[in-house]
Amino acid sequence: MQVKLKKTEVRNKEFSYHGFEQLDGDHSFKKAVPGAYVEYQVRKRHGGKVVYFNFELAREMGLIESSHPDKFSKKLESVILDTFGIVIINEYDLIHKTKFAKEDIKPKKYMATRYLQLQHPCPTGKTSGDGRSIWNGEFAAHGKVWDVTSCGTGATCLSPATHKYKKFFKTGDPTISYGCGYSETDEGLSTAIFSDILHKNQHSTERVLAILEFEKNIGITVRAHPCLLRPSHFFNHLKQGNLEALEQITDYFIERMKKNKSWKNVPTNRTKKYDYFLEKVSHDFAKAAAKYEDDYIFCWFDWDGDNTLMNGGIIDYGSIRQFGMFHHEYRYDDVERYSTSIKEQKQKSKYIVQTFVQLVDFLKTGQKKNITSFKSHAALNEYEKTFEYYKNYNLIYKIGFAPSKIEGILSNKKNMHLVSKFRSAFTYFERAKSQRGIYKVADGITWDAIFCMRDILRELPQLLLLRNQEYLSAEEFIEIIRSSYAKKNDLKIAKERKIKIQQFQKYYLLLLKAVGRSCNTKVDKMLLEITMRSSIINKYERVTGDSITIITDKILHTRPSLQNIEIYEILQEFGSSQNLNPDKTKSKPRNGVKRSSVLYGMFKIVNDYREGI
């Protein structure tokens, strides 16, 4: 039985931070998959300070005690700096015989993992992987294992720059950007803000545990997740035809999923075990692709499997965006190429699954076949079915139906006919584009969407309730969904558009009536329930990639007057305000004039950029 401490006892308690000692460079991956990483000695990095520490995540992990308050102490800050304030001793240091104080060198080596990378000169992943990150280790507590990595810890031999220029770089070399091995504080802050919001909204994602800052805005971002392996960690071995390493990493991953109780009843038979692995991967990527598309999240799925976790979750926020509307022509400019678009993510995700089909066949037969021979595999048919299931599920959820009702809707053929008709009308407006066409933006190109579908899903149920289920006129409907991107010529109500407006409302109401009959609930009562839920799910103020960038700049500008605990509290309260779960337990707002002033500015930015990219 756990005794709950009184507030005075918590304040006076001396907390232990022994959990941090686990993060000393050791990781089970080293023994399980030899040769799949490069090891580096590391040394202490002096002059750092803690900008941010995620108390909520640290308690969830078991890294700090559950009774630990959201409060820094000299001891805690010292432990964070000692654990994560490190830099690798890299090849440049060794070649130039750079001298370091013996007491600064950590006893154990840390690993940079090898994986496939689209932007790397080597197409088989022999020389690519963690270019500026190392794995601090793995942390085990409460029956769960977490991977912990740090970005900005020095230039490794696996960065694209090393092989493009055929030389090793000194960590911090100002002549090279990505290859210098450092990251910046603003990168860490934007990742902390964004990942916390997406985590609160049921997306699997890496999360920021801590941010350290050194001179000239140079930072280290510490990230955690129950498994930080990516498909690209597998695909390099597949490309190289390294069957032994492929089997090692696949078995290792399956065991991690079992250990964390993410997968249950995994078959012991070797063939069936790999079939189970493929089934899970196919399902997870189909579900993730559908949710990203419906939540307007651009995460750049591609053939290398580098920008995603093994469950389809989000990693590396350098190019991640959440759009305010379905800006499906936006493409990120990665200097040498443009990225995929959000609409293309489904096919790219499916191709990742097809690569896993090829991988599993290689494991089972010992022969590596051409990937094109698997384009009609049963796993890809299941992918399509799963994707469609979650596209329908997500839309019904966004209407405002409770999860307890959605399963019943999806299992009823008559209801699914109505869902299909409604989805067709919804998609027509969601994908409508401005007559302006494609144009350049700060980090890529785009073609504006013109209708904000959150607005109609939020406003329609209460208007139908007030008007005794009378349809909105075409003009009223367009006035609600029109965005600031829409010009006069974009808003003309031609015959086809008028028909779609009628169909949208017709099938919306027919679906409500059908569900009402099945659960013996009057439509007005259902409209009231949906009004309440939809107002949260389709909140007016919703963060976008642009707003996150501007908010990060605002926090950095205000930082000299903020303590690190205030930054944590601001981010916590801001993240809670963006939690779009209507079933969530409301948290009490935090007090503080300074924090309220900063938060007000953040909320205003979200409001101003709510429709953008």
A few lines on this structure:
The protein has 613 residues and is an alpha+beta fold.
Compile the SSE list and pairings.
Layout: H1 7-12, H2 28-32, E1 37-40, E2 42-44, E3 49-53, H3 55-61, H4 74-84, E4 86-88, H5 91-95, E5 110-113, E6 133-141, E7 144-151, H6 160-164, E8 183-184, H7 185-200, E9 207-213, E10 218-225, H8 232-240, H9 243-259, H10 270-294, E11 297-298, E12 321-322, E13 331-332, H11 345-365, H12 378-399, H13 403-410, H14 413-430, E14 439-441, E15 444-446, H15 453-466, H16 474-481, H17 495-518, H18 523-537, H19 545-558, H20 564-577, H21 593-608
Helix pairs in contact: 7-19, 7-20, 8-9, 10-11, 10-12, 11-12, 12-13, 14-17, 15-18, 19-21, 20-21
Description of the structure:
This protein is α+β, with helices and mostly antiparallel strands. It has 4 domains: 7-225, no CATH class; 258-387, no CATH class; 400-537, no CATH class; 545-608, no CATH class. The chain has 21 helices and 15 strands. It has helices at residues 7-12, 28-32, 55-61, 74-84, 91-95, 160-164, 185-200, 232-240, 243-259, 270-294, 345-365, 378-399, 403-410, 413-430, 453-466, 474-481, 495-518, 523-537, 545-558, 564-577, 593-608; strands spanning 37-40, 42-44, 49-53, 86-88, 110-113, 133-141, 144-151, 183-184, 207-213, 218-225, 297-298, 321-322, 331-332, 439-441, 444-446. Strands 3, 6, 7, 8, 9 and 10 form a 6-stranded antiparallel sheet that branches. Helix 10 (270-294) runs antiparallel to helix 11 (345-365), helix 12 (378-399) packs across helix 13 (403-410) and helix 15 (453-466) packs antiparallel against helix 18 (523-537). The radius of gyration is 25 Å and the shape is globular. The chain starts with 6 loop residues before the first helix and ends in a 5-residue tail after the last helix. The mean pLDDT is 94.
